[in-house]
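Here we describe the complex-level prediction in full. Unlike the single-chain runs in Section 2.1, the two entities below were treated as one system.
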Amino acid sequence: MELKEKLVSSFMAFEDTVDVDSPVHDIRTEAIKHFENEGFPTKRQEAWKYTSLNSVLKHDYSVFPKHEDALEFKDVKKYFIHDIDSYKIVFIDGKYSSHLSQTTHDGIDVCLMSAALSKPKYRLVIENYFNKIASKDGLSSLNTAFSAEGAYIHIPKNKLVEKPIQILHFSTGNEAALMLQPRNLVVVDENSHVQIIERHQSLTDNPVLTNSVTEIFANKRAIVDYYKIQNDRETASLIDSTFINQKQESIAKVHTFSFGGKIIRNNLNFYQNGERIDSTMKGITIIGNKQHVDHNTLVHHIEPNCESHQDYKGIFGDSATGVFNGKVLVEKEAQKTDAFQANNNILLSDKATINTKPQLEIFADDVKCSHGCTIGQLDESAMFYLRSRGIPEKEARGLLMFAFSNNVLDSVKIPEIKNRITKIIANKLGVNIGFDL
Amino acid sequence: MSKYTEDDLREELKTKEYEYGFYTDIESETFPNGLNEDIIKAISKKKEEPEWMTEWRLEAFKVWQDMEEPDWANVNYEKPDFQAISYYSAPNSKPKYNSLDEVDPELLATFEKLGISLDEQKKLAGVAMDVVVDSVSVATTFKETLAEKGIIFMSISEAIKEHPELVKKYIGTVVPQKDNFYAALNSAVFSDGSFCYIPKGVRCPMELSTYFRINQAGTGQFERTLVIADEGSYVSYLEGCTAPSRDENQLHAAVVELIALEDAEIKYSTVQNWFPGNAEGKGGVFNFVTKRGLCENNAKISWTQVETGSAVTWKYPSCVLKGDNSVGEFYSIAVTNNFQQADTGTKMIHLGKNTKSTIISKGISAGKSQNSYRGLVQISPRAENARNFSQCDSLLMGNECGAHTFPYIEAKNKTAQIEHEATTSKIGEDQIFYCNQRGIDTEKAIALIVNGFSKEVLNKLPMEFAVEAQKLLEISLEGSVG
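The structure predicted for the assembly as a whole is:
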């Protein structure tokens, strides 16, 4: 594969730009070897059975964008959750944009991966956490090999971070085709609480491929609330791999809102290394045209008395394809596990496709594990009820679809995000829902 | 439920027509180990098959050579060496033992619990016995009844000779030679099996069964079954046996093809209880089966299975719902104990309009066993108003076993309605306590609860099977709870 060779050979050039003495260097060299062996995933692999990257990999991507471009805040304001005060880490074509960002070192570290990788004061954290839970598959290894930039967030003990942190990646279209590989590390120590919002946005129709890896460590009793907003153009593709390691009594929630993109693949992996952990992953997917969204989740229950909740809703129109591949793995020590998984889908068109595979792998006997999965249509009688009360068909349909996906929004803790998502859904469905929440 | 006694069995034997009379007597002979074109030609020749059949086998063999043994199933085992197996061994007529005293007492104890008569026990264990039970006349009356209705029921080797047009028309249409590794192997070397044809509009008056044939002839290692229900007909077919079969053949790769033409209905019930290996996981049968049915318009195929035996099971009875308004059903209980591994489930392929499918799967794992459900529900773009309901429940006993669910659901039509549910649980201590305080000991209580858990499937079995299957469940799980 051409792109593969290009990437492997650009690794040399990449090495010239980074510090080869850093401990991360060995990790990178090893990772590129992994990638060379594994390559890009194909449909022959079980985890990629329903998602082919061929249409995405054919472009001649620039791996190191040369131009630097400044964006005016007013032009990109709408992509921020701008009505609340927040920390911001903004990247333009993979490069940090200091004038759009607002970082801090005041008690907490909200800054750049490049700084964390090079400055000695972060060395201990990097040694302890960097690349400790990211998987060793081809795509994650590729990201590890080229890991240089991204968000670095370290919240020490007993801190409640009052403002959410927004991570934004813009691609300007200065390159004919661009490949981005952001690498994020989030470490939340004991009793701390943080909220993070992540978004990838392409500003033109030039193809973009983002291969992002995020490692999150939620230590004892930490609370991590992570929101992913994916509403990109139909020329932008995203492979987003998130790995979350949880310690005892921690709570981690990831909400994924997928409303646009050419191919979106979300790999979401939770590892529960402690007792009484709570993991939640929820998502709403509403897509049309030829878009493709693939949710691939794993919850690994390793210790007793933990919980996990999964709830994914999908609405697929036109020739869109939805994939859900959820896996709950309960080890034999993980007694009293309570795992729940739900995946509900609506198909709006005869050309749309849903492939869903909710898996349970259970080795412990005293557990409560269940999953449910449905594929169906909007209820005719509910439609009739609304229309008989004078609500036009389009609005009625919109209301029903909104109601269908609504309970995912219940657990969203930031009202502004709720508002924003509601608006995006209303736009998507082409209706005025008429209420804000 | 009343106790199943020896008298009942004797009664049953009387009415059940013990020997169907299609036992082909070949001198005891075994081919050298290994597989090549000559062996296949020799098998075909031995069975006096017409040339098209030999060609068909060779074609399958060619495909098989290029195939790789699949390893996607959730099972671990040492792959058989396909060149170390003898592909043709005529039924061994020599008894293994001279009297029941030589037989493994464990086996006898099981027979006792299943309520199997002494004669029957001898037969199952391979003990020499006089031929009282082998009543030729019974078989003849049985055949006559079927012949009156125009039903053809015979071994597939006979069918190839006597009804080549039917066999040629249908064999390989549902499970093609190149379908999968084991189906290809089976197509190349299948030794024998059953053939059944129900003519138009005929309702088969009795349940057709391979029950006794299997016990008698030692089993066909590579069985091939072909059931054809012509327009508007009905047949219920029973396969297998509740009594534990000891068999030297380690690898079993059977193929079953069902064809339900317009308005026809086929009910196919299986009880599988091959040797599962001993408590340490040594030995045991590898059971790799390809079963598939094809439904034309308004046809219905219903698979019911109780899987308790075999060290490794790899089996997915499927329905291709090709015709409009066709119905596919799958009811399964899979029990694994000790070191058994089962990867079983179904495929429902919805092609026609208004097709319906139901999947009820109950998995019970105990000991150190692994039990997986693997299923596919596929709705093609043309399958308007397709409906599927799936339910997979797992029961775990002890924390050394595993229960796994791998449901694949692929919908390409907006009118599809699909529901899938799966749960995993254990037997509640409160349930056991409730039984205990009413004087039911723990072992009995577990049997009671397991029966309740599997009731939905047990109910689908024909009467005589259901009684035995229920007992079989109890025995399979014996000693699994401390």
